[in-house]
Amino acid sequence: GLKPDEKSYNGVINACAKEGAVERAEAWFWHMVASGCKIDMIAFGSVMHASSKVGDVERVEYWIDEMQSRGLKPNLVCFNIMLNACAHGGRYTKALLWLERMVE
Q1: What is the pTM of this model?
Q2: DSSP label at 5?
Q3: Which candidate among 1, 3, 62, 70 keeps its CA 20 to 30 Å from the CA of 29?
Q4: What CA–CA distance (Å, rounded) separates 72 from 65?
Q5: Half-sphere exposure of 65 toward its Cβ, with a 13 Å CA cutoff?
Q6: pLDDT score of 72 more than 90
Q7: Nearest by Cα to 58 from 19, 94, 103
Q8: How many CB atoms lie within 10 A of CB 20?
Q9: Under DSSP, is residue 14 helix (H, G, I), strand (E, B) or coil?
Q10: Mind listing the pLDDT tens digit for each residue in 81-98?
């Protein structure tokens, strides 16, 4: 058979994210890591989006930390995902902190 690549895994992670299936999205992210695929901003954005949809700000923060630990710097998309998580979670003060961090 064929071996899934980054696009394959990102597609599955995105599908999980659209359903708000956070645990499944994260499980597929770790499958992607274990398979040896390159983990990039798209993969992190996809898995962060799942947590954002359900307003889980702390989980999005975890993924931003994980991304940075792998040498990737959050881009505008990542910050927007975080701001959306704050909006979905009703976390106005946290959104302001992230907005300030974004413009630093």
Answers
A1: 0.91
A2: -
A3: 1
A4: 10
A5: 6
A6: yes
A7: 94
A8: 17
A9: helix
A10: 999 999 999 999 999 999
